[in-house]
Design a protein that fits this description.
- The chain is mostly helical.
- Among the domains are: about 100 residues, no CATH class; about 250 residues, no CATH class.
- Helix content is about 75%, strand content about 0%.
- The protein is built from 27 helices and no strands.
- α10 runs parallel beside α26.
- The longest helix is centred in the last third of the chain and has 30 residues.
- The protein is globular and about 75 Å long.
- The chain starts with 6 loop residues before the first helix and ends with a helix.
Amino acid sequence: MSPSVPPSASRFLPASAAQRLGFFFGVAALAALALIPSGLHRIEGMGSRPAYAAGVAALMSLWWLTEAVPIAITACVPLVLFPVFGVFGGGLANELKSSVDPFVGAYVFLFLGGMAIGAGMEQWGLHRRIAVHIMRAIGTDPKRLLLGMLVSTAAVSMWISNTATAVMMMPIGMAVLAQIEAASGKKRLEHFGSAMMLAVAYGSNVGGIGTKIGTGTNSIFAGFVADKLHHDIGFLEYMAIGTPFVVIFLPIVWLALWMTARKDVIASEGARDALDGALIAMGPMSAGERRVAVIFSLAALLWIAGDPIRAVITPFVPIFWKGFQFKGRHYEAWVAMGAAVALLATRSVSLASLRRLPWSTLVLLGGSFVMAAGIESSGLSRWMAGNVSVITGMSPLPQIGITTFATVLLSAVASNTATINVALNVLPPSLPLLSASMIGASCDFMLPAGTPPNAIVFGSGYVRLPTMIRTGFLLDVCAVIMTTLYCHFYVAYLFR
């Protein structure tokens, strides 16, 4: 009889066979790369540091991809192993500092402030009011209703997590469907219902690409580009990358979903009543809702107008903080945390709401940044750059196409954050190429396990797996083509 595992410990241990294999192969990869002599141990001036960094990166990648242990636990691995192996060099004090610093970097605080704003919106229902008003403005005939669900979900997901967006929008969609089915003689609308639920999932995924705080993937990308390419992507500059893609791709998603939805004969009389009923139930804006709206609007304006404001502030920073380089990411983090403090000070967000935030995502961001820092400082990145000649020898268009295809394919079986962490650290340092991997990581539409929103709507009872696979496969193909052309022609022009 095997010994029992305490419940508190069991959630940290691999559960499925795939997770157990991932755990084992991760440890085996670390041991093999760190201990078996290879070219990674003979890089001039670096000793065995590249081999140790490669071993830790392989362990983390395999654990992230298979979710062998919770992703936040994996993110903390470098805190222990990098100092043990001396990956950064310069003594134990520098090892510890270099391992800890990324966990308190500007992008971590930017994402934390963004999550606090999202928590305030959720607490007072502001996001729900915004979504319902967008749906009513677009219209309630079947085509417009589907488009309204998609657009409103994407708009909300640009500012709060895709998971929270899907959780919030699914009940709205279900309420609208119930009213339409009642108006249609209580006939269950299998096809239209499936399309509406998939609009929630796909809108949540695509909308998150639009802003720097839309999903953790975007912050990981921006942080990597700032640290490794020394290009500080501002909030507005990031929106110039992500938002046009959202605007262009949403109509493609809508057309793919309408191919399913149009199979039902739909009476739209109940939709307007459902949306009006939702607004009546919400009542007039409360004082807390108005406060959150004001703070959110001010933060958004400060982010968008960041470059001219930062130009005014920067000369005064050395007076208060000698030697500090005030970059765009620091300004954006200050705005985000200022908004979070304002929400707390005005009692516009409760401590209970903040406790429900996905704090593990912040740990994941820190772990992503420290893994990348170790790869760079150890000399492994230079070795990797010299060994990806198959990709670097290609012209830009096939490079971006292969990158996008591989990223979308990998994101179907792994989380988007795990996907982007692996991709950024093996790709050549090209902004169009890295942008393609960032966009592609949020573009899995085919499987329930691809993203949390996919899994959430799959539990609605309307979405059948064959429908999701068929529609999602079409959109995955469109996403690969669209992202490739978008990054080759537009993003490359943007960063020329």
